[in-house]
Inverse folding.
C-alpha cells in the first residue's frame, strides 16, 4: 500500500512534463484571420467546416487533471484515503514504539504537503497563466517558475519524502 503510493508519486515527479502538458489543442493560423483574408476564410469555412485543419497550429496548455488523479483527490489511484490507512491501528502497531514520534511526524508532514498539493493543483486549473492560455508545442510554458502547478510539484516532492520516512519506520511483522 505505502510502496504503491511512493511509486505513484515518484512516477508523477519523474514524468511531470508529460503529465502536465496537454497538447490536444489547435489554433487557427493568425494570418487566416486577418481582414485581407476574409474571402479565403469564408471559402475554407464552407469547404472544411470552419477551416482547413491541416493548416492548424498545435498548441498546448498546462493541465492539472493527471496530477489530481495521481494524488488521489479524484478518487483514483493508491493515494486515495492513504492518510487514514497510515493511521490505522493495524499499521501503527507495526512501528517500533521508540519510533512512533518520528512516524507520526512523517505522516503529519505527508498530510500537510498533500493538502497543499491538492489546493495548489486545483487552483492551477483556473489561475495559472499557461493553464488558461495556449503556448506552442515544443516551447516552454510562459509562467513555470512560481505557478500554482509548480508549487504543487514541490509539495508532492516533500510529501513523497515524508512518505518514504514513514515507510522506513514500518517494520514487517
Amino acid at each position: 500500500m505505502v510502496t504503491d503510493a511512493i511509486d505513484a508519486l515518484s512516477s508523477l515527479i519523474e514524468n511531470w512534463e508529460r503529465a502536465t502538458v496537454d497538447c490536444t489543442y489547435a489554433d487557427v493560423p493568425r494570418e487566416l484571420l486577418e481582414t485581407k483574408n476574409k474571402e479565403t476564410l469564408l471559402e475554407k469555412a464552407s469547404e472544411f467546416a470552419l477551416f482547413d485543419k491541416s493548416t492548424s497550429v498545435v498548441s498546448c496548455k498546462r493541465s492539472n487533471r493527471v496530477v489530481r488523479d495521481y494524488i488521489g483527490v479524484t478518487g483514483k489511484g493508491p493515494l486515495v484515503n492513504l492518510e487514514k490507512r497510515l493511521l490505522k491501528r493495524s499499521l501503527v502497531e507495526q512501528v517500533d514504539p521508540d519510533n512512533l514520534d518520528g512516524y507520526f511526524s512523517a505522516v503529519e508532514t505527508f498530510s500537510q504537503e498533500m493538502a497543499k498539493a491538492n489546493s495548489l493543483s486545483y487552483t492551477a486549473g483556473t489561475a495559472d497563466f499557461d493553464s488558461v492560455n495556449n503556448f506552442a508545442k515544443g516551447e516552454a510554458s510562459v509562467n513555470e517558475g512560481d505557478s500554482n502547478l509548480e508549487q504543487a510539484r514541490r509539495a508532492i516532492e516533500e510529501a513523497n519524502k515524508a512518505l518514504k520516512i514513514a515507510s522506513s519506520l514500518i517494520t514487517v511483522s
